[in-house]
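R.M. (postdoc): so does anyone remember the format we settled on? I'll just put the structure tokens first.
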């Protein structure tokens, strides 16, 4: 009798657990994602990752950094994962890491040589990655540092490139959070449109 009672209780509890599992699976596995999708639809491109288009073709996202190389383009921040969105993570190297200090010294020398400036003039965002390694923005200071090289390589006047930087600079969020930034992809597209 005791065994029968225990088995009955176990079956009843298992059935209750299974019903709860099914209800939560439907609510959280189907209902919640469907509700989030429905709420996001009126937001248009913001819900789709803010794709940036050139001649109707998606060339990147306003939310994700990407690598730009060569003299003609503004360069992004360094990325420990080469801007791979599937490997988004910081490098986990701290200020006492010899590897990090060596990488920063190497980046400082490389940027200073490329831009023709004193190594002490290279801003921090040219030397270190963001927390995700995917930040699409650089500081206005880093953009202005690159302006003479980009202007020269594209046959533009430096003052015109500085004007593009100014018009591409976004302010602080809500007027007080964060720092002003320049979206590198959008700035490079503006450079491409201005090239003779």
């Amino acid at each position: 009798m005791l065994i029968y009672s225990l088995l009955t209780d176990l079956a009843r509890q298992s059935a209750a657990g299974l019903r709860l599992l099914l209800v939560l699976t439907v609510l959280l596995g189907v209902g919640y994602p469907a509700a989030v999708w429905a709420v996001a639809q009126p937001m248009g491109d913001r819900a789709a990752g803010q794709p940036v288009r050139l001649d109707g073709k998606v060339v990147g996202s306003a939310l994700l950094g990407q690598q730009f190389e060569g003299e003609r383009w503004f360069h992004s921040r360094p990325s420990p994962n080469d801007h791979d969105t599937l490997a988004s993570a910081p490098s986990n190297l701290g200020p006492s890491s010899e590897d990090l200090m060596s990488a920063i010294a190497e980046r400082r020398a490389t940027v200073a040589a490329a831009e023709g400036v004193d190594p002490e003039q290279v801003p921090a965002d040219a030397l270190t990655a963001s927390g995700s390694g995917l930040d699409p923005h650089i500081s206005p200071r880093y953009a202005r540092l690159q302006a003479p090289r980009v202007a020269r390589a594209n046959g533009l006047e430096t003052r015109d490139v500085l004007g593009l930087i100014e018009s591409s600079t976004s302010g602080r969020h809500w007027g007080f959070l964060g720092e002003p930034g320049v979206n590198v992809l959008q700035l490079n597209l503006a450079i491409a449109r201005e090239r003779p």
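R.M.: ...and that's the designed sequence above, right after the tokens. Also worth knowing: The first strand starts at residue 51 and ends at 54. The chain has five helices and five strands.
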